[in-house]
């Protein structure tokens, strides 16, 4: 558009309807001449013409030239120069209503944008928003002041041109949130959070936050962590089992370490918080890999024993003959091969803390009787010992076996079952809380990439759909293993559908009653699952050179589950 000498305003023929409306509104005009590149008049744009275009559902981005042409083809609906020929009254009111709706929509958008800007500017932290290409779309006053730049100069530029050492554009590609990272800006270590913005399964941008007050706090947290780690190694030297590496490296504590917002998991988190407050025995059930140990640690960390040890023992992994010594310890010379000076048992090591009895359903009957006595008397007697020692231990037990059925079948003691089953927490299988899959993937991807020192990876929409569609029989452990495998196998930053193991894409049954090629689809499905699981197990055994413990780890299932499957598939 041009404003010539003597305030003569014209509109270029390639300008849009939206620009035409803006021009008329800005200059308070009813009509404006439409000109070509040489300034020659090609027609006249009026409010009536704009109303006509809106009434005919034309796009706001259409050129004025096209609208002029459409008007003339329409048989002169557009008024002639003198404006005597108006659109008919019905169309006129339709157009007016549409314009009014657009005006209100615009007003609302402006109001929201203003509110958002006020909120952003009032925030103490620096906030920057980038789009899917890493281009700055919004930045607040605090960030601009810190960087010493003007908002207008930052907006529209790639974030790397605006903020030193930023990784926001990488966060957009990986889709992985980065919280509490240190970023050097102007030589100062700053604490930043980088959070991807997801829409319809795709990352469409990211928000960066600069925490001005955070550095000293972070150093304080760091100092406390160092103290804790020193404490842990002191305890390890004294014989207390160190927590798993995963738990030690994770900053999350208590229910924080449980990822997921599905209602079933939200209810579990509530139960955990309640259970943490009381000393009663907790009994956790759920399929293998659903996070029973994670839940047990969360209870320990959220309760008053958090400063005490968390000791875990897998009752299925220890041969029957050694289980008693592992649990209660042994005296010097208690049996052939016993360590000189004896050894404390898990109960003693957990004194003042929590003992997690995993796979309790696999505990032999004879051992169950001894366990019941210890739980009732709160005293343990070492193998080869003569007197008992008092222990103050909170018990959390877990199993993936149907313990009630085992009680009925006589393979699990009823009295021990009731002694354990005081607070019951059931962890749902992953297939029943699929909405948590993206968050679990993001969490473990970030954790593992940090652990391996590699850059983050993101999933294509198709790959994510496959991961969400799969039934995850090995639950979260299987998911973690798939992520670990992908991190080491995929070179690039984007994980595509074809990078995923083939068994994840197997067709799901649509309806059990449907038939396909004469065979019942549910039977075909079962057969396919059977085949694919058999192949996966065979592949894992080959990859692990026949080592069953390693194969079970690769498959994300417990060793005892692998043995059952080996039997089932006739290996
Ligand atoms: N809610 C969760 N959020 C994040 N990670 C989880 C969650 N639950 C489980 N995991 C991860 O899944 C894996 C398996 O968890 P865990 O060992 O607690 O399962 P489990 O039910 O005790 O398995 P099993 O019955 O075989 O002993 C671990 O890598 C753990 O970090």
From TrEMBL:
NCBIfam families: sensory_box. SMART domains: AAA (SM00382), PAS (SM00091). Residues 74-95 are annotated as: Disordered. PROSITE patterns: PAS, SIGMA54_INTERACT_2, SIGMA54_INTERACT_3, SIGMA54_INTERACT_4. It comes from Geobacillus icigianus. The lineage of its organism: Bacteria, Bacillati, Bacillota, Bacilli, Bacillales. The keyword Methyltransferase does not apply. Residues 77-95 have a biased composition (Basic and acidic residues). Gene3D superfamilies: 1.10.8.60, Homeodomain-like, P-loop containing nucleotide triphosphate hydrolases, PAS domain. Residues 112-163 form the PAS domain. Keywords: ATP-binding, DNA-binding, Nucleotide-binding, Transcription, Transcription regulation. This is Anaerobic nitric oxide reductase transcription regulator NorR. Residues 258-488 form the Sigma-54 factor interaction domain. It comes from the Bacteria. It holds the Pfam family AAA_lid_14.
């Amino acid at each position: 558009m041009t404003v010539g000498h003597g305030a003569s305003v014209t509109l270029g023929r390639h300008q849009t309807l939206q620009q035409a409306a803006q021009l008329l509104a800005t200059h308070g005009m009813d009509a404006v001449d439409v000109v070509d590149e040489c300034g020659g008049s090609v027609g006249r744009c009026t409010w009536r013409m704009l109303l006509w275009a809106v009434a005919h559902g034309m796009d706001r981005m259409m050129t004025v030239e096209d609208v002029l042409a459409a008007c003339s083809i329409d048989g002169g609906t557009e008024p002639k120069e003198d404006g005597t020929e108006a659109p008919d009254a019905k169309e006129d009111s339709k157009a007016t209503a549409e314009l009014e709706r657009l005006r209100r929509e615009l007003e609302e958008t402006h109001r929201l944008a203003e509110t958002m800007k006020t909120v952003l500017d009032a925030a103490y932290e620096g906030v920057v928003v980038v789009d899917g290409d890493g281009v700055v779309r919004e930045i607040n006053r605090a960030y601009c002041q810190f960087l010493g730049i003007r908002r207008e100069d930052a907006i529209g530029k790639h974030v790397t041109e605006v903020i030193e050492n930023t990784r926001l554009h990488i966060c957009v590609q990986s889709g992985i949130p980065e919280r509490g990272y240190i970023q050097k800006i102007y030589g100062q270590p700053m604490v930043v959070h980088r959070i991807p913005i997801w829409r319809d399964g795709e990352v469409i941008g990211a928000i960066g936050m600069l925490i001005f007050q955070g550095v000293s706090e972070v150093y304080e947290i760091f100092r406390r962590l160092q103290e804790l780690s020193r404490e842990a190694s002191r305890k390890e030297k004294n014989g207390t089992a160190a927590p798993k590496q995963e738990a030690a490296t994770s900053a999350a504590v208590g229910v924080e370490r449980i990822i997921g917002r599905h209602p079933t998991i939200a209810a579990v988190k509530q139960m955990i918080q309640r259970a943490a407050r009381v000393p009663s025995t907790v009994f956790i059930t759920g399929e293998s890999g659903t996070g029973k140990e994670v839940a047990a640690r969360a209870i320990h960390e959220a309760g008053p024993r958090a400063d005490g040890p968390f000791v875990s023992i897998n009752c299925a992994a220890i041969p029957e003959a050694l289980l008693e010594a592992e649990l209660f310890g042994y005296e010097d010379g208690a049996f052939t091969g016993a360590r000189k000076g004896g050894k404390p048992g898990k109960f003693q090591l957990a004194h003042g803390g929590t003992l997690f009895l995993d796979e309790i359903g696999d505990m032999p009957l004879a051992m169950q009787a001894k366990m019941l006595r210890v739980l009732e008397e709160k005293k343990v007697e070492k193998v080869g010992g003569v007197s008992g020692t008092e222990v103050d231990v909170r018990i959390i037990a877990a199993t993936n076996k149907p313990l009630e059925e085992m009680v009925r079948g006589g393979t699990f003691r009823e009295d021990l079952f009731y002694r354990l089953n005081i607070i019951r927490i059931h962890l749902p299988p992953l297939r029943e809380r699929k909405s948590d899959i993206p968050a679990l993937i993001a969490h473990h991807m970030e954790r593992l990439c940090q652990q391996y020192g590699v850059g983050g990876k993101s999933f294509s929409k198709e790959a994510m759909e496959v991961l969400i569609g799969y039934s995850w029989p090995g639950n979260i452990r299987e998911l973690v293993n798939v992520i670990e495998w992908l991190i080491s196998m995929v070179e690039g930053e984007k994980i595509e559908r074809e990078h995923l193991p083939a068994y994840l894409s197997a067709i799901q049954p649509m309806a059990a009653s449907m038939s396909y090629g004469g065979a019942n689809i549910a039977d075909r499905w079962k057969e396919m699952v059977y085949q694919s699981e058999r192949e996966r197990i065979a592949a894992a055994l080959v990859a692990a050179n026949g080592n069953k413990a390693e194969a079970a780890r690769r498959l994300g299932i417990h060793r005892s589950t692998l043995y059952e499957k080996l039997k089932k598939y006739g290996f």
